[in-house]
Amino acid sequence: MSQPTANCPNCGAPVRFRWSSAVQTTCEFCRSILVRRDVDLERVGVVADLPPDASPVQIGTEGIYGNQAFVVVGRILYEYEQGGWNEWHLVFNDGASGWLSDAQAEYAVSFLAPRAELPAAGELRRGRRVVLNGVPFEVTAVTRARYRGVQGELPFEYWDKTEMLFADLRTGDARFATIDYSEAEPRLFVGEAAGFDDLHLKNLRPFEGWSG
Amino acid sequence: MSAPPQVKALNCPACGAAVTLRAFEHTLSVVCGNCLSILDAKDPNLQVLQQFQARERIQPVIPLGTRGKVRGDLFEVVGFQVRTITVDGVPYSWSEYLLFNPYQGFRYLTEYQGHWNDVVTLRSVPEVDTSGPRPTAKLLGERYQHFQTAKAETTYVLGEFPWQARVGDQAAVMDFIAPPRMLSRESTAAEAVWSLGEYLTGARVWEAFQLPGSPPPASGVFANQPSPYEGRAGSAWALFGILALVLVAVGLACFTFAQQAEVFRGAYSHRQGSGEASLVTDIFELKGRPSNVEVTVSTDLSNNWAYFHFALINADTSQAYDFGREVSHYFGRDSDGDWREGGPKDTAVIPTVPAGRYYLRVEPEMDAAAAEMRYELAVRRDVPTLSFLFIAAGLLLIPPVVSSVRAAVFTQRRWRESDYAPAESDDGDSGDD
User: Fold this and answer.
1) Are strands A175-180 and B8-11 parallel, antiparallel or unpaired?
2) Virtual CA dihedral for A154, A156, A160, A161, nearest 10 degrees?
3) Which tens digits make up the pLDDT trace of A163-211?
4) What is the pLDDT of residue B151?
5) Does residue B43 belong to the interface with chain A, where contact is any CB pair within 8 Å?
6) Which of A74, B247, B325, B385 is most enclosed, with most CB atoms within 10 A?
7) Which residues of B touch A141 (CB under 8 A)?
8) Nearby residues of B286 by Cβ (< 8 Å), 6 or more positions away
9) What is the Cα–Cα distance from B157 to B168, expressed in whole angstroms?
10) Which of B6, B28, B124 sits opposite A208 (nearest CB)?
């Protein structure tokens, strides 16, 4: 993995990329949101204070999924009425990009899927069956969430969000899908729910009174 | 990088008592154990969401903050709630313990009258099939039978929850069972959540959480309690099958190796009150290993009876085997048509007679007015007998039948608490469960 470095256009601190294909990152020092424009970094905004959260995952956490090692390089943090959750951006050994969602220590790994025919946001109801790429899914939750912030490297620009709509879908055999309706063209992520132990996570956050 | 999450100690805004937050930022609401105020854990001022009245204080049998090993990982009890369903006006309450590990997340222990379940939220959506008379749910190839649908209401809360818990919360609960597992679907207006429970004994819970004393005994039969008889009946039947095969083999061997040799045959006649009362046959020889002897008496009795006193006597040692047979043969015709009772012939088998020279002493006895009777005696050595096989088979049947009956009774008690309880008005022993 190449690790190109640049300097933050805001504070001048070195900005290190763990993933050469990152489109966006944040400055660790001044929390500026930086977007790559050719060879330059453009400051598009600043991350507000991220609310404290209790995810055991952090940037730099390593794990294994489907026999491929990955490292966590970024995240998007959301909030909704029943709490918050993280979408951790994973970069795999082979350069592929994926997502580890962690909602109250319930984990799922997913990947951006090729464009599929998706139901319109207005048609979504809990319990509705949707066939995605030939697999029958059931809509298990329709969540209106608030974007709370980003950290680290992401595969796309993601910073000027406020409220967004998500649909979670599941199958009888632990497959998992999320449709993100925040873009003009909704994004589909498909993967599966995973147990904590299945992911062989290392370099986790410590918790007072608990040993990882 | 942010500081490691820490256990927080706060003070209840209503009464000032100390309140502990054990599940870090996951907690949305926490109950003040002193004044039973439910507090908004996300609010910097711990705004009171609800203050509930309890007729009596409920002490969880596993205190909040206790840690125990569940499926190899350490979990801490962080929340407790009592939930109640009402069936025919009768409230049934169970306890739910919310367990937390910062890496593994949340899981539950539920307890009803000494029956425990280890419960996790499912990552899959089971397939519900309502086409049959009773709905079923399928998960990972296993079929679960619908047990009960009820409305559960939260009636008591303590500790903290990763949702805004309130007394009075309602959820529609559908339970499906495949003992020792239970699938439950809980739905509210906002969401539907499936969970999977696995039956635990109180002893396992006491061991996992190192609780003092011994668990209160479980009463009645719980929905997904594994039947102690189910496997036992199965293995009892399997053992019966094996032994029955052995019996059949023994029976076949008897048929194959039995000599079935006729060693004597003679024809006689008898008239009551005339001549010798008893006669003795010629001597015949019984050979081979000690084995049975079959004596058949065939008469020409018709609408008459006779009683035969027999003795099989060893000519050398005078050892005698005494036995008797009544032969009675009646027939006729009445308004129902032909009828017949008894027969002109009977057989006696004397077991285990050693080899030697023997004769039979015969004393027939008849009605004084009866006509002369002709009869024939036949003696056969070593005949195959099946009666002992049937007796043995009958004895062997007892354990599996008892086990099956017990299993059936257990299953009946299980379903008595379900939506499919038999419609019985006054069941004598259901009241004490």
Assistant:
1) unpaired
2) -80
3) 889 999 999 888 999 999 988 889 999 999 999 999 999 999 999 889 7
4) 95
5) no
6) A74
7) 191
8) B263, B293, B353, B354, B355, B356, B357, B358, B381
9) 10
10) B6
Residues 47-106 of B with CB under 8 A from A: 74, 101-106
Task: Let me know if B420 is exposed, middle or buried by CB neighbors in 10 A (0-12, 13-18, 19+).
Answer: middle
Provide the sign of the torsion angle of the four alpha carbons A123, A127, A128, A132, taken in this order: positive
pLDDT, tens digit (0-9, with 9 covering 90-100), for A51-94? 888 999 999 999 999 999 999 999 999 998 878 899 999 999 99
Assigned token pair, B1: 């990088």
Of A170, A196, A208, the CB nearest to B4: A208
pLDDT means per 10 residues, chain B with 433 residues, are 76 94 93 94 91 89 96 96 92 96 96 96 92 92 94 96 94 95 91 93 96 93 89 86 89 78 91 81 90 92 93 93 93 90 92 92 90 92 79 89 90 90 55 41
> Which of A55, A78, A80, A104 would best serve as a mutation to test chain B binding (most B beta carbons within 10 A)?
A104
**Cβ contacts (< 8 Å) between B123 and chain A: which residues?**
106, 108, 170, 174, 176, 193
Size (chain A), residues: 212
Q: Cβ of B123 under 8 Å from any chain A Cβ?
A: yes
Residues of A in contact with B104 (CB under 8 A): 105, 196
Closest-CA residue to A192 (of A171, A161, A167): A171
Predicted TM-score (pTM) of this structure: 0.78
Per the CB < 8 A criterion, the answer to whether B138 and B144 are in contact is yes
